Amino acid sequence: MTGAILSAQHMTRRYGGFVVLNDVSLEVAQGEICGLIGPNGAGKTTLMDVMCGRGSGYSSGIVTLMGQRIDGLDARGRRKAGLGRSFQKTNIFPDLTVEEQMMLAARATGAPNAPEVMEELQIAALADRRAGDVSYGDQRRVDIALALMGRPPVVLLDEPAAGLSINESLGLSILLKDLARRWRVSVIIVEHDMDVIFSICDRIIVLQLGEILTAGSADEIRANPDVVRAYLGSAAT
After folding, report:
1. Phi, psi (5° rounding) for residue 187?
2. What is the 3-state secondary structure (H, E, C) of 137-200?
3. Does the pTM exceed 0.70?
4. Among the four 18, 117, 163, 224, which has the fewest Cβ within 10 Å?
5. What's the Rg (C-alpha) of the chain?
């Protein structure tokens, strides 16, 4: 892919002789939403961790963001360089208010755009409430808002719809697709909710046993018999 805003080449992670991620490469264009799917243990979260400089074990690979190599930076350095990240479990402090969470992130990233991000994620009305007291769906939005502080050019979202109702997942999908279009932010999303993946992703990468099985559009992935056998099953219809 030409004009990639993020390039991750030869991503590998192993623990002794056990290879969790084996020489995986991907590129993402500006404003593109790229989905990562695959069975549990396929290496999806591990791929995000290696790109972000997180986790233990031996890791290798070249990560380039906006034409600059960032794989020599630690996780904090990569975040400051413009690689945002949310996590499977919400990365919030329950005793702080929503606004206090955002102000902490603002100081960490040097970005003064907390009010803008809160409006975009539709959590501005919750500013004075303790994060532990808002609904789980709103906590997920707070977590995504933290990843978007400073309007990083690339955001990695790890199961943002986990635990949400159908309506909450639908609302989040619409919000993410709209935000990616208007802000021209690139999104890599790991998600088990195939409705979310198929509705918002421009391209989908399928991982299996730490390697790329295939990649393509939603229609191509749905029609791929190898993907159906390995992962989608009846969800492909």
Report:
1. -125, 130
2. HHHHHHHHHHHCCCCCCEEEEECCCCCCCHHHHHHHHHHHHHHHHHHCCEEEEECCCHHHHHHH
3. yes
4. 18
5. 17
Cα distances from 153 to residues 77, 168, 180, 225, in angstroms, run: 15, 25, 10, 34
E-strand stretches of 48-127? 58-65, 68-69, 83-85
How many whole angstroms separate alpha carbon 95 and alpha carbon 12? 37
**Going residue by residue through the chain (237 aa), what tens digit of pLDDT does each one get?**
457 999 999 999 999 989 999 999 999 999 999 999 999 899 999 999 999 999 988 999 999 999 999 999 999 999 999 999 998 888 789 899 999 999 988 887 777 788 999 999 999 999 999 999 999 999 999 999 999 998 999 999 999 998 899 889 989 999 999 999 999 999 999 998 888 999 999 999 999 999 999 999 999 998 998 888 777 654 443
HSE toward the beta carbon, residue 49, CA cutoff 13 A = 16
Query: What tokens were used for 125?
Result: 């009305």
How far apart are alpha carbons 101 and 78 in whole angstroms?
Answer: 20
